[in-house]
Amino acid sequence: SNGMWAFAGEHTGRVSRDEVTKLLGAINTIFVAEFVADQPADLSVYGLDQPKVLMTLQLPPADAKQTNEQDAQQSEATTPKPRYQTIAIGDPVDLKKERYFATFADGQGVGQVVFQINKSDYEKFVKDADSLRDPRLTPIVTSDITKLLIANGNDTVLQINKGATGWGYGDPKPGYGLDVELAEELINSITDARANGYMVDPKFIRPPLMSVTLGATGHASDDVLSVHAGGDDFVTVIRNNETVGYNVPKADLEQVMGAKVALLRNRTIKDWKPADLKVLDVILPDVGQTMLHFTRDNASWKLDGYDKHESFALTDLLDALAPLKAESWQVNGPLGDDVYTVTYGNDDQKLTLKVDPTSRVAQLIEPELNFMVSQELVDKLTAELRPRTIVDLTRDAIKQVQVITRDQDVTINHADGKFTAAGIELDDEKVG
């Protein structure tokens, strides 16, 4: 009803529209492998007196023009009677079970014509209730969600709202902005979660671990998901007043269960661009605590003590540092001993940052702030910035090369476009 499928009769809960669509599609693809009997006297011969599968379809009333008699009957009934079609599947044809007996009736009950269907068609209809359930925790579409509230009892853990300008923190607002990407990842983790098992009419002694409230456009009331303790590796989620619990792996709701206001704060710590920077100092974690001092004069960067530097590596590092962005506020462990210290900025402000390349833990010195950085930033920071070219000469510029080994002393001369050794002209490609 209203475009939604739900169980009726002894079963309760939401039904997957996709699974129902597959089931209805399977009906349209049934192939009669062979006709067997017309109006058989004994249905038990085919196992159709007690079918293995009996599927009854309720269809809308016929639109055909009614007779006067039907009009009279209609006046007595307030609503037209629905139509029915029934598919019954009985025993396998033989011990190989490659085919099954079946009938079709344009009405309720077993049909009059017995035929055979293939095993593949039979298996499409062997379903239990759980295989037809909607595994989503909520049918609300992600793009429609405008509110997320996570609570522990009466205590609000996190509240974010989507307004005309986008996502933001709800009251009480912290003193920093919200990272929209992290907020959307959190919401997606809820709408993407899927049950891998179900509990019908569950009874819980203890209160829920937490509750998740979702508000959405086009929905008159909020969806409230109560998260209860389940097994070692799963939790059981109840939506509103539904009578079916959804067993969801804890890993799928890890972000929700560990949600905190601070973990969603804006990850952009300093919104610099590489062009804003004028100085960069990198202290290496070697024995001598070597410091590389870079300065920029107009558009050109220079490294003290060297005529050149690895310009591509420096450009990559500046791109990783400006803007300075945390990958996560969830810090795993302290800083180690082998840390890189980076001080960079311009005439107005400088930042000092310590980075542990092993754990990816970073610490901003002032204001003091701990966070995780990306592996990309670590890779750029640990790359060699000093010039790596030992001999900066082109081949044509070299006039003589002397190669001395234990066994020989060879001098190669280059003149008039030719390479010679002891007056003998050498192979140009090999010498090159």
Structural account:
- It is a single chain.
- The chain has 432 residues and is α+β, with helices and mostly antiparallel strands.
- The chain is 16% helix and 34% strand.
- It is built from 9 helices and 26 strands.
- The chain has helices at residues 17-28, 68-76, 119-123, 129-132, 180-192, 254-257, 311-321, 375-382, 428-431, and strands at residues 32-38, 53-59, 83-92, 99-105, 113-118, 145-152, 155-163, 166-169, 197-200, 210-216, 223-229, 234-239, 244-249, 268-270, 279-283, 291-297, 300-303, 324-325, 340-345, 350-355, 361-364, 369-372, 400-404, 409-415, 418-421, 424-425.
- A hairpin with a 4-residue loop joins strand 12 and strand 13.
- The longest helix has 13 residues, at 180-192.
- The chain is elongated.
Write out key terms for the chains shown.
432 residues, elongated
Could you give the topology of this structure?
Elements: H1 17-28, E1 32-38, E2 53-59, H2 68-76, E3 83-92, E4 99-105, E5 113-118, H3 119-123, H4 129-132, E6 145-152, E7 155-163, E8 166-169, H5 180-192, E9 197-200, E10 210-216, E11 223-229, E12 234-239, E13 244-249, H6 254-257, E14 268-270, E15 279-283, E16 291-297, E17 300-303, H7 311-321, E18 324-325, E19 340-345, E20 350-355, E21 361-364, E22 369-372, H8 375-382, E23 400-404, E24 409-415, E25 418-421, E26 424-425, H9 428-431
Helix pairs in contact: 7-8
